[in-house]
Design brief:
Elements: H1 22-27, H2 34-41, H3 43-51, E1 62-67, E2 70-75, E3 78-79, H4 81-93, E4 97-102, E5 108-112, H5 113-129, E6 137-141, H6 146-158, E7 161-164, H7 171-181, E8 185-189, E9 191-194, E10 197-200, H8 202-208, E11 217-221, E12 237-239, H9 240-244, E13 256-257, E14 261-267, E15 275-280, H10 281-295, E16 303-306, H11 313-325, E17 329-333, H12 349-357, E18 361-364, H13 366-375, H14 378-381, E19 390-394, H15 400-410, E20 417-420, E21 431-432, E22 447-448, E23 454-457, E24 469-474, E25 484-485, H16 489-497, E26 508-512, E27 518-523, E28 527-530, E29 533-536, H17 537-546, E30 550-560, E31 564-573, H18 584-602, E32 610-614, H19 627-634, H20 649-657
Parallel strand pairs: 4-17, 6-7, 6-8, 7-14, 8-11, 11-12, 16-17, 16-18, 18-19, 19-20, 31-32
Antiparallel strand pairs: 1-2, 3-13, 4-5, 9-10, 14-15, 15-25, 21-22, 23-24, 24-26, 26-27, 28-29, 30-31
Helix pairs in contact: 2-3, 4-5, 4-6, 4-11, 5-6, 7-8, 10-11, 13-15
The protein binds 5'-O-[(S)-ethoxy(hydroxy)phosphoryl]adenosine.
């Protein structure tokens, strides 16, 4: 591979690479290449060095206790996450901006660290008054408003675990997650703005709560106001603004053991039921803090924007905990990238905000980059993006075309790009470039973060030589690793540690090239990456078969130009419901109904792009659906090996029908 420091981007060829710009390297937080060697020599000491820059109420007496697959980091240490994100900055940086927020209609708010701290303390007192204490669980179902971060931080102040549920999830998904963790309180808002409309949240909570017996209180933030009337259930529902009145801005922070649970965040599991990923206090914060500092090169002068919703791990680690622990100024936006402050469709809201607010660091997802590519170069071109100095990508593999577009049209060939591979389970970034040090290759996440050990192995768990496609594993424990699956440690051991005993199995394929760069190749299990969201094929299938018309369903992720993957469902319809194959209209209606059914049950993010009504599904002789072949059909490829099929004629049948049932 050639390494061409002067490649401008416009004449990029596969194999070309980009060295960090000299001006960037000269000021970077990570500027000493020795960091990799030092960390590799003694990862525990490396992590302890960063952990010791946090505020501890009591020091730890052992860095790591490793009883595979269970890790304890900073054993015996005590700390509180909210004091690390707030209190310790106040003496010198109380007036620094903590959050700069813009609502979709263009309304703005700025909170300094002092103001944020006061609000968090007040809200922690509110929660305390409602009976929330250490170890209790709190569901958060909120839009992207500062109060979402305030609610999270207030939980950590009391030692209560939050479980944030993405606002795009449905009644059932919210209820399932709330019941699984047994939340006592749910925090929500009336609604929020998206594409000029109000998306209601409280009404979803109203529908979910009758089936959530553990929830005693719903605290409701007024965001949408008159535009979104809500029904308050007496004795259960309380307004945030009523409760906060007169609360003290002081609330003692609970001293938490380093290994005390911090939060639960649900992620899709390949067997359908979502997994409650449990993170603990000391290790998680150390991971989020260290990676934010070194990967995003955070400085006091930055205005840093991670576009992820707080409903995802990226929002936890890189909107809230990592940046605030570093005393960064975080930008937050409520709405859609294609809606203007004037309330009209547009294609440049992000670039407009970067220009107006002088945002310096942008961390977003390939799906957004690809959507912007499609909308056209002229939209970013209208804007002065010279404030930007660093770009990041997360959520799925970024294809080289999108990487280069990002580099040219957003970074204007000045800004390094960090392509960051990690997961809900890993808590913080695992594979990434360091922007002042690493030569980047479009499409590769490059190298493991200092202190992280990974490998690419074959089916038997044997390390593969360079340039071989295999399975990614993490070979040593790291501070921000998940500790278990809430309420199901057996599943934790099964899912992550049983494929290759002693190695963490993230479920991703990968290749390591001759230079040691890692190329992520997508999931190797039944998880789809739809616009960066993890969806399980099983979860969609179980919902589809709940529909009276569906006898059997198989869901696959088909490649999609913008979303990366899009769900496509193949369904066998019960005879009494099957529209005759001659009645195209009736088949279309049923396909549309099934899409809507999934969307209602699981949320709009899960809506299938296409539903194909089929007479049968290709199965092996042992009865397993061969999704690989369905994927070949959906993507219009020549069919792979069909020799293990029980009835090879079935695929030919589906293939001939394919596409005719889309609405
Ligand atoms: C995928 C999001 C390639 C991967 C932080 C992983 C990526 C899953 C990248 C986790 C990347 C995330 N390159 N693939 N830079 N980032 N992924 O839990 O398949 O929502 O296992 O965490 O997203 O998704 P999750």
């Amino acid at each position: 591979m050639s390494t061409d420091a002067n490649t401008s981007g416009s004449d990029w060829q596969p194999g070309h690479s980009f060295t960090p710009p000299k001006e960037f390297a000269a000021q970077a937080n990570a500027s000493d290449p020795e960091i990799y060697g030092r960390a590799a020599e003694d990862p525990e000491v490396f992590w302890a060095g960063y952990a010791s820059r946090l505020d501890w109420m009591e020091p730890w007496n052992q860095i790591l206790e490793w009883n595979p697959p269970h890790a304890k980091w900073f054993v015996g240490g005590k700390l509180n996450v909210s004091t690390n994100c707030l209190d310790r900055h106040l003496a010198t940086n109380g007036d620094r901006r903590a959050i700069v927020w813009e609502g979709e209609p263009g309304d703005q708010r700025t909170l300094t660290y002092r103001e944020l701290s006061a609000l968090v303390n007040q809200f922690a007192n509110v929660l305390k008054q409602q009976g929330v204490g250490k170890g209790d669980r709190v569901s958060i179902y909120m839009p992207m408003v500062p109060e979402a971060a305030i609610a999270m931080l207030a939980c950590t102040r009391l030692g209560a675990l939050h479980s944030v549920v993405f606002g795009g999830f449905s009644v059932e998904s919210l209820a399932e997650r709330t019941n699984d963790c047994g939340a006592k309180v749910i925090i929500t808002a009336d609604g929020y703005w998206r594409r000029g409309n109000i998306v209601p949240l409280k009404s979803v909570v109203d529908e979910a709560l009758p089936s959530c017996p553990s929830v005693k209180r719903a605290i409701v933030l007024r965001r949408a106001g008159d535009k979104c009337p809500v029904k308050m259930e007496p004795g259960r529902d309380l307004w945030w603004h009523d409760l906060i009145v007169g609360q003290s801005t002081d609330c003692a922070a609970e001293p938490m053991d380093a290994e005390d649970p911090l939060f639960i965040l649900y992620t899709s599991g390949s067997t359908g039921k979502p997994k409650g990923i449990l993170h603990t206090t000391g290790g998680y914060l150390t991971g989020a803090y260290t990676t934010t500092q070194l990967v995003f090169d955070i400085k006091p002068t930055d205005l840093y924007w991670c576009t992820a919703d707080i409903g995802w791990i990226t929002g936890h680690s890189y909107v809230v905990y990592g940046p605030l622990a570093n005393c960064a100024t975080v930008f937050m936006y409520e709405g859609s990238p294609d809606w203007s402050t004037q309330g009209e469709p547009c294609r440049d809201r992000f670039w407009d905000m970067i220009e107006r607010h002088k945002i310096t660091i942008l961390y977003t997802a390939p799906t957004l980059i690809r959507a912007c590519m499609k909308w056209g170069d002229e939209h970013p071109a209208k804007h002065d993006l010279s404030s930007l100095r660093l770009l990041g990508s997360v959520g799925e593999p970024i294809n080289p075309e999108a990487w280069l577009w990002y580099h040219r049209h957003i970074g204007r060939e000045r800004c390094p790009i960090v392509d960051t591979w990690w997961q809900t389970e890993t808590g913080s970034i695992m594979i990434t470039s360091l922007p002042g040090l690493t030569t980047t290759h479009p499409g590769s996440a490059t190298r493991p973060f200092p202190g992280i050990s990974v490998d690419v192995v074959d089916d038997m768990g044997r390390s593969l030589p360079p340039d071989h496609k295999g399975i990614l594993v993490i070979t040593k424990p790291w501070p921000s690793m998940l500790r278990t699956i809430w309420g199901d440690d057996h599943r934790y051991q099964q899912v992550y540690w049983s494929r290759f005993p002693g190695l963490y199995f993230p479920g991703d394929g990968a290749l390591r090239d001759m230079e040691g760069n890692y190329w992520l190749l997508g999931r190797v299990d039944d998880i789809m990456l739809v616009a960066g969201h993890n969806l399980s094929t099983m979860e969609l299938e179980s919902v589809l078969v709940e529909h009276p018309a569906v006898a059997e369903a198989a869901v696959i992720g088909r490649s999609h130009e913008v979303k990366g993957q899009a769900p496509v469902a193949f369904v066998i319809v019960r005879e009494e419901y099957a529209p005759p194959s001659s009645d195209g209209e009736a088949r279309k209606r049923l396909a549309a109904e099934l899409k809507e059914f999934v969307s209602q049950r699981l949320g709009a993010v899960c809506r299938p792009d296409e539903v194909i009504i089929s007479g049968d599904l290709p199965k092996t002789r042992s009865g397993k659906i061969m999704r690989r072949l369905l994927r070949d059909i959906a993507e219009g490829r020549v069919l792979g090996d069909t020799s293990t099929l029980a009835d090879p004629n079935i695929v030919a049948g589906i293939k001939s029908k394919y596409g005719s049932d889309d609405d």
